Amino acid sequence: MIETLFFLTEAHSEAEGGFGLNFDILESNLINLLILAGVLFYYGSKIVGNILNERKNKIAQKIGEVEEKQRKAAQALAQEQEKLAQAKSTASKIISDAEANAQKAKQAILAQGEKEVERIKAMAVADLNSEQERAIAELKQRITALALGRVENQLGEFLNDETQHQLIDRSIARLGG
């Protein structure tokens, strides 16, 4: 800018016949501003264009990276949702299998319980029958013992020595002949 100002003042001075400075601020500033604007436009448009193109390329690259990350995230989400669905399916299968196994175990336990009840009933009946037979045998022994005791008492009253000798003689006679 200073060179431009210097060049303009030199050209103006040569026209007047010498070297000098142009102190007309409005005239020199306007020309300097136009030259400066032209230089900036000529060189600046390339630089600004390059900067804007680089920025545009970086933004496009970032957008591409973000879109790629979004696509990968969507794929990962789909895979995880599929895994979740499989896990839910597996969990429901495990639950249904567990319920079926529990039902089978319940039935087996009930059947075993019924068998045990029947076995206990059979043992109780057998014990009752053996107790009843033992009680009956004991009663028979007592009755027999009482009957024998009574018969002995009655025989002792009815049988005296003479009746006993007659009874013995008759028995010997039957046996002997």
Quick tags:
177 residues; mainly alpha; 3 helices; rod-shaped; disordered N terminus; ATP_synth_B-like_membr_sf
List the secondary-structure elements in sequence, H or E.
HHH
User: What is the number of domains?
Assistant: 1
Per DSSP, what share of the residues sits in E-state strands of 2 or more residues? under 5%
Rounded mean pLDDT is 83
Helical residues, percent = over 70%
State Rg.
Answer: 68 Å
Could you explain how this protein is built, in words?
With 177 residues, this protein is an all-alpha fold. 93% of the residues lie in helices and 0% in strands. It has 3 helices and no strands.
Short synopsis of the structure:
The protein has 177 residues and is an all-alpha fold.
